[in-house]
Known about the structure:
Blueprint (H helix, E strand, L loop, with lengths): L1 E2 L22 H4 L5 E4 L4 H11 L3 E6 L3 E7 H9 L7 H6 L1 H5 L6 H4 L7 E2 L4 H11 L3 E5 L5 E6 H5 L6 H16 L7 E6 L2 E6 L6 H10 L6 E6 L4
Parallel strand pairs: 2-3, 5-6, 9-10
Antiparallel strand pairs: 1-2, 3-4, 6-7, 8-9
Helix pairs in contact: 9-10
Amino acid sequence: MDSADSAGTMGGAEATDGAPHTPHTVGDVMSQTVVSVGRDAPFKQIVMTMEQWKVSALPVLEGEGRVVGVVSEADLLPKEEFRDGDPSRMEQLRRPEELARVGAVTAGELMTAPAVCVRARATLAEAARIMARRRVKRLPVIDADGLLVGVVSRGDLLKVFLRPDEDIAREVRRDVVEPLFPGRDRSVGVRVADGVVTFTGEIRNTALVPVAARMARSVEGVVDVGFDLARSA
């Protein structure tokens, strides 16, 4: 079993312009404390490791830390499920991969492979899509060489919604208002409450309204976007 000796933190570093660093990538929010097992880890050790670290899945590594699979509680459960009886013919047809694990005793035999992983440089939206499509709660995070560098969970991805409203407002003004509505006499304002961005003032070119909404929604931590605009005379 391997475990890193440092824990990951959400991006709190200062950007070059002095503004708080915005968490845009998986590497910004992932946990660097990683608990894993090797291919030869026995069944009981896997269960004990999950219980000790309070996790529901473990990356399976080989060599210098290459992720070759993931073993989860779902992979272990068939052994208990069919302890007192054999699967029916229908179950054998519907669940061949799961039932093959009933007699498995090591991580290499139990694991799901290839592992569903994500790169540290992937965006948070990309990681969220992978989790949703593959129906997993945690993803091993790998570097360009396929080596394990961390793990990201659903909870980690939700950390972006802890951003202060003033930070979100600052980024929306800089990345949305300034490029779309340039000029000193700009009449478009921004207010943020509980992550909800509201554009205020007057937008003379109404074609820019959906553009502004789309750009604002791409800012990490934004919950929703609305408009409270003055009517043109």
